TrEMBL record:
Entry-linked InterPro entries: NFATC2-Int_DNA_Repair (IPR052324), Ubiquitin-like_domsf (IPR029071)
Ranges of compositional bias, category Basic residues: 86-95
Alphabetical keyword list: Nucleus
Gene3D superfamilies, per the entry: Phosphatidylinositol 3-kinase Catalytic Subunit, Chain A, domain 1
UniProt record, GO biological process: positive regulation of transcription by RNA polymerase II
Protein name: Uncharacterized protein
Keyword Ligase found: no
Top-rank taxon: Eukaryota
Localization per record: Nucleus
Length: 281
């Protein structure tokens, strides 16, 4: 220990120096954290600026190549024509982005990789619409030509028959058949029979629980594409068979027997005798 200093004075000096050291260390730590945060922010901004610069450089590289291609495809012109063409291009470039977006949106709406059944159905619909459009054009031309002609030279206009898509329900299946609206149901029944691979005499067509007359047409019955026609299986009775009704003398017992025209009556009479009392004859 030095002369003139006590132990209490030494302890107070040590406390002062230790407090100052803590403050200095804390301030240095805070300054270091600030430097780190500022450095990260600056690095992020620099990265964004570098990316933007690279994008601009790529665009500038592409523009001269596009201009060279466009200039090679165009014929040689004078300076005035070239300047006017550039002005037009500048005006048209304003709407190019909008047009590209519209085309892309239309392409996204269109279905891709359709199944085979859907493609066939689309083709049928396209053919049907094209046929209907042609028929309507022909009909309009005939009507206009009839109005332009005089009464002496005018002739009767044959109205083209329009097609109707019929819905026919057979058991648990619904068939679709394109027919003319003035076509008789006799021909429609034969077409349906061919599709079902049965005889035309074995089916009956009904609409709203009413049998359809074979001489009627879809136009006369006002049948549209949303109406459903029921096709009911029907087996006509055999023409060779006929019904024999027998009754006993006491009027108590009656018998109905279907007999064949080809068979002899002796066989049927023997059966009837077994069923009726003895004093039938």
């Amino acid at each position: 220990m030095m002369e003139g200093y006590s132990d209490d004075e030494d302890s107070s000096v040590e406390e002062i120096f230790s407090g100052r050291a803590d403050k200095i260390i804390q301030s240095q730590h805070e300054a270091f954290e600030k430097l780190l945060t500022e450095g990260t922010e600056e690095n992020a901004e620099k990265e964004q600026e570098d990316i933007m610069i690279k994008i601009r450089e790529k665009l500038e590289r592409k523009q001269p190549s596009r201009k060279a291609k466009a200039g090679a495809s165009l014929p040689k012109k004078s300076k005035e024509e070239v300047s006017s063409a550039r002005g037009r291009r500048g005006r048209s470039k304003r709407n190019t982005k909008v047009e590209v977006q519209e085309i892309e949106s239309k392409e996204e709406v269109l279905p891709l990789n359709l199944p085979a059944k859907a493609k066939k159905r689309l083709k049928k619909l396209e053919l049907k619409t094209s046929r209907q459009g042609k028929r309507m054009d022909q009909l309009n031309q005939r009507i206009l030509s009839a109005f332009n002609t005089t009464e002496e030279d005018s002739a009767c206009i044959d109205i083209i028959e329009q097609e109707v898509n019929l819905k026919i329900r057979y058991l648990y299946e619904i068939l679709r058949l394109d027919v003319n609206e003035n076509e008789s149901f006799a021909t429609i029944v034969s077409k349906v029979a061919k599709l079902l691979k049965i005889k035309s005499s074995e089916i009956v067509m009904c609409l709203d629980d009413k049998t359809i007359d074979l001489n009627a047409t879809p136009f006369s019955m006002n049948i549209k594409s949303w109406n459903i026609i029921d096709c009911i299986p029907y087996k006509p009775p055999d023409e060779n068979n006929f019904l024999i009704k027998m009754q006993s003398n006491d009027n108590k017992k009656k018998i109905d027997i279907y007999a064949d025209k080809v068979l002899k009556l002796t066989e049927k009479v023997f059966i009837i005798c077994l069923c009726l009392p003895i004093n039938v004859f």
